[in-house]
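Handoff note, outgoing to incoming analyst
You'll be picking up this chain. Sequence as last confirmed:
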Amino acid sequence: MVTYTACEDYLDVVPDNIATIDNAFTNRTMAEKFLFTCYSYMPRHADPESQAFLACDEFWVPYPQLPIYFYSTVFEYIARGNQNVSEPALNYWDGSKSMFVALRDCNTFLEKIDKVPGIYQYERDRWIAEVKFLKAYYHYWLLRMYGPIPLIRENLPVSSGIEEVQVKREPVDDCFDYIVSLLNEAIPDLPLKLQNEVTETGRATQPVVLSVKAKILVEAASPLFNGNTDYASFIRKADGVQYFNQTFDNNKWEKAAIACKNAIDTCHLAGFHLYEYLPNISENLVPEILTQMSIRNSVADNNYNYNKEVVWMNPNSTSDWLQRLSTATLNPANMQNEATRSLLAPPLRIAEMFYTKNGVPIDEDAEWEITGKYVERYKTQKATEVDKFHIKEGTVTAVLNFDREIRFYANLGFDGGLWYGIGKFDVDDQWDIQGKQGQAAGKRLLTNYSTTGYYCKKLAHYQNVILPGAGAGYQVVDYPWPVMRLADLYLLYAEALNEAQGPSEEVYSYIDRVRDRAGLEPVEIAWPKYAKASRKDKHTTKEGFRSIIQQERLIELANEGHRYWEIRRWKRAKEIWHNQPVQGWDIDQDETAAYYRVRTLFTRSFNIKDYLWPIREYNLSVNPNLDQNPGW
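Most recent structure output, in case you need it:
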């Protein structure tokens, strides 16, 4: 925690109150403060009000919300279909989160840094490269949300006329090209590794920039931005320029695949690798729990010297609040402590998304089909000794919770399930989650409970401590948010290569690395061996393997805030979300049979207009050259 505190202070520095911009560049110290100001605009990736955790069906929370406990405009406006043009949620166009303010400061830094005395040239070059990276990332953040955006290549002079100030949005391909050009300019002058992980964590390096470049090129090649004919009529009213290209270009996938491989090679050169948990001497872990801990700690381990899976972490945005919102009340003797709020509840659909223990989807597993297990997944059964590391022996819980892959148990807690850590470090004496009405983890308070019956175990650090007594609190082992993990990059490469060339041994090898860490057999073994007859060759076609990769990404990155963006870029949001119910167990019940009834919490809507967020109408009134996104 001492190590982390030092890191938290870093990047949290802003310039002193100064009379003019020129004063901010009078010496090295002041210029460095301005560099940190450019970093300070980095989005709060771990903040549910700054990210899309609650924008889709990744989590659900009790409704109506009570602000005294928790309130989310993202959930209210986006997930529940109330987004608007007057005061849109997650507004990064203007207001307090405006990325254009960040871009202005980045441009100011680039304009002034050459005039600062007392800086070594290699250091000056590094700082310039860092700000070019930030400038690219802030543009990308806007592009991903709004589609075509104005490109802020340089700041306009104070003397600029009205026509110059009223900037236009530019076609998405031009936006992607400009962003990638900035990243390419930044790469050569950045270090391969940070010299001091404690004081510099979060700063741009070659692995960070190459990984972000790979992710951006995959986005550019994806269906939302590559030949999207839904936006054929979306043109710039000032001159008729078309914002979205109308012809699919497979070369974009080729470029993305090359970028992913370059990023992977550089990450390996810098010493990054998939995380594997190293137990303490006092821990005697069985393989099932050891694998669980490798998955959980790939996100939550804040030891910079050991967690070499996180390529880029954001020390300005940490997990403390997310952990409090995710953790179940585990101790029946401590039910008065409201610090563990249990609010971020994965819906039933997320629970069904994970594979069976055989590493294939639950609706494709031959065993689940033959035994009728898939059809009867909402019924109940009693746990036996075979289940003892994941489900309390003798407990009756849903069939859906049995015989699942280990990532299911690493990500999710549920009634009757076991929770390793947070005060219990014996695999034979884990926390037994009691989730029914009136029980420790069940519905007891006004809003501090899981509305679906599932809990997000993955985000809660296993060394947290729930203190005894009402109002005693929750000691959280905080960690910087992992913006980019190596597993993410491996799966991006598999996706890009499959789209560019179709399935191959190279494609299989990278998805299999992630599956192997999760304790699963390779794709080319699992589907022929375990899938039902109609799915045994699914992995041999581009379309079939695309489906496998997409599900693998949603599973591996579950509950980390990626789901909303992934489903959008694949252009599958209307298919997955429109008129689809958000469901959970009937948590108002205290009897097993009644509790395990499926309850619909909400029926979502999603239309084509929802792929791009609205620009606040005020901006359109002050700049007539801006075009509103279609449908708003």
